[in-house]
Amino acid sequence: LYALPVFLLVYFLDLYEREPMSLVIGAFLWGAVAATTLGALANIGWGAVIARSLDPQVAARWVPALTAPWTEEILKAAGVVLIYLIARREIDDIMDGFVYGAMVGLGFAVVENVFYFIAVFGGETEDVLIGFFLRVIASGLYGHVLYTGLSGMGIAYFTTRRGQASLGKRLGVAVGLFGIAMVAHFVWNSPLVDFFPEPPLEGAEFLQVLFATAVKGVPLLAFVAVMVGLAHRREHRWLQAALASEVGKEGIHQEELAVLDSPRERRRARREMGRRSGAAAADLLKRLQRQQVNLAMVATRVDGEHPDLLRQRAHCKAIRDALSAMPGARGEAPR
Fold first, then answer.
1. DSSP letters of 15-59?
2. pTM score
3. What's the longest Cα–Cα distance across the chain?
């Protein structure tokens, strides 16, 4: 249940084009099933190699940091690559990569947490609640969702910037974001900047755990927040540029573009339409907005008076005409 709010938050981060639910669930399942299974095998194998190569006490402290970051991040990122190979047109901007990567990371985190609750914290109610505090409440903002979200952004940048950036730049950005994810994972698993109290936890030590996780996790969280903000700004610019030549034609009007550009305004317009004309009219307005976003996508793929573009314009007009015919829908401009 605790994963559901994170799932919805990530899913709705894309301002204009929601990813197909089948692919989103596929990404989640890759992280939950494939990446965890293969990651466990890889970590056990490489852990044994490191344990034989280092002093036992050193190995015990450093094995998680020397194995999991690169084995798990490679396996999770492979899920985003697979989604691109299966449905290339569904990854057309950086935010798409973040959504798919974060879903892979969320699936991985859920299964890994259940494993820890049972195998590490003992499976008893009191111990599981302590584990839940440590791994979900204190650490939940900083883990696999961010790591693989960054890797997904790098993959999306590499695949969607052909013709806009050189191969070297695209590869550098992709490798750089993946490297940041791996380094953040390394720091999290390592004994570096470790302010965690020794177990068992009592009283104020629970607050110390919150501080310790924040020290390791807040810098990455802030960096990802900036990256997502930049991706949102790019989405705004993309929509405006894609529909600039379409405004005033039958597909979209100027006042509709002003509303379409803001998720908040789109929701407000649907609420007002529902108040005036009922739920059916609000649903029809939502459908019009979705098809106008699709109009932008078609406009970026074809030129001029291409049949696909003409069909999409006509489709938007037909929805608008049907909406205008509903009682009360034309009482005000549909904002």
1. SS-PPPHHHHHHHHHIIIIIIHHHHHHHHHHHHHHHHHHS-HHHH
2. 0.87
3. 78
Q: Who's near 49: CB < 8 A, 6+ residues apart?
A: none
> Shortest CA distance to 189 belongs to which of 33, 66, 13?
66
Q: Pick the closest to residue 242 from 20, 92, 87, 83 (CA basis).
A: 92
* Residues sharing a CB contact under 8 Å with residue 161, sequence separation 6 or more, in sequence order: 169, 170
Condensed to tens digits (0 to 9), the pLDDT of residues 20-69 reads 999 999 999 999 999 999 999 999 999 999 999 988 889 889 999 999 99
**Minimal CA–CA distance to 312: which of 300, 324, 294?**
294
Q: What are the angstrom distances between the C-alpha of 110 and each of 6, 23, 102, 137, 226?
A: 11, 18, 12, 13, 25
141, 233, 323 from 294: Cα distances, Å: 33, 19, 18
Amino acid (1-letter code) at residue 239: L
Q: How many CA atoms lie within 13 A of 221 on its CB side?
A: 12
How far, in Å, CA of 323 to CA of 11, rounded?
A: 28
